Request: fold
Amino acid sequence: MHHMRNYLLLAGCLWAGSLLAQSVKPVFPIPTKEQLTWHEKEFYLFIHFGPNTFTDKEWGEGNEDPSVFNPTALDCEQWTRIAKQAGAKGIILTAKHHDGFCLWPSKQSTHTVRESKWMNGKGDVVKALSEACKKAGLDMGIYISPWDRNHPQYGSPEYNDVYIASMKELLTQYGKFFELWWDGANGEGPNGKKQEYDFRRFEDSAFKWQPQLVIFSDIGPGIRWCGNEKGTISNTNWNLLDTAGFKRGHGGPPTDTLNSGNVNGKNWIPAEADVSIRPGWLYHAKEDSKVKSPETLFNLYLRSVGNGGNLLLNVPPDRTGRIHPADSASLVGFRKLRDAAFAKDLLQKARISNTSSKKNITTLTDRNIQTYWASAQKENSTLLVTLPKKTALNTLVLEEMISYGQRVSAFTIESFDGEAFKTVFTGTTIGRKKIARFPEQETTQLRIVIQQAKAAPVLRSISAYQIPN
Reply:
């Protein structure tokens, strides 16, 4: 009996092996496991909070009295509750902004929550948020500005050690973070000097403490800035970037390159779109009436996540330490619009076939992110979608199986009008997700034609919707 079982096991392995032998060869570069997890998040919140919240500034000078930081009713569980209601998958906190003020009692600085009046100097915002995120099942990320307008050693070689020591506090005391956020801001410190940042050491140190981190900056290494703070990514968006010869901040790649990536880039460094729900990044009472509407946020979602990137939406707490009702209401409205738009996939009963093989491809509509359809040809792969009855629709969502690399560079969507197929959408890249919107069609058939690709296309999902305008 044992022999029989062993034989069956061996046969099973051989069968799986033959499947793998015919399986798709990746087109490099490809995402890491951590980057693939990051791609699935789609949308999460940024929290800008600190002395500027209380001085009404956007950029602090670094010479503010720490006692100005005094939220009267800080409630990180309120932040996580609102994040969950909005459908956000995580929160990134500005643990230290350019003013050098630390939202944790850092031993590397005398400009921290410890020196403030808040909770008699016993408070720790990083700890409070990390506990709230764990409780709510949300991931947490951290922003630590390398520029520091307060630290006396900024502008000297010693400051690189100070920065690494402050990173160590954050990365070893509060649990795991999903993202570490760097900008390249590099102004003068208290002594009028600029710092030569040792980013190579910063990176090595961060990975030593938390190897799973996805690091954001102009040149990654994990994710790139999308080149604007409007929350939009180009319709053509390659998850690839060449970084050789570029730096963070001044000396970064041109903004149009950051927005669309490099078609033959050497590194997998996808785009993240950062934008604030308000005109400013920090809370100002005068902006309470200028919170972006749910419709505006939905439009940004279509132009960021819908172009294959992620959306990082800043929602700044007010002086009580809570998210303002205006922001909260807009976020809930945004969630409702997303839910309504994508509630009903019109392809659930459709038949999809590749014009060369004719058999029904169920892997494209099975809602399983591990299954996919691989085309047998590189150019002009055509999928025919046949609906059970005439259906009104205006949106098609396409997803590539990016674990095998990003391939598609030109495609069209055609709708059958009763007599002929007419092109309703012309696109370039697909990537992790492409939300293709077009004028409403009433049709029984659609055709997706992939004219150009780096290698035979591999898609994991197709769905269609009638999104209310």
About this structure: The first strand starts at residue 43 and ends at 47. DSSP finds ten helices and 17 strands in the chain.
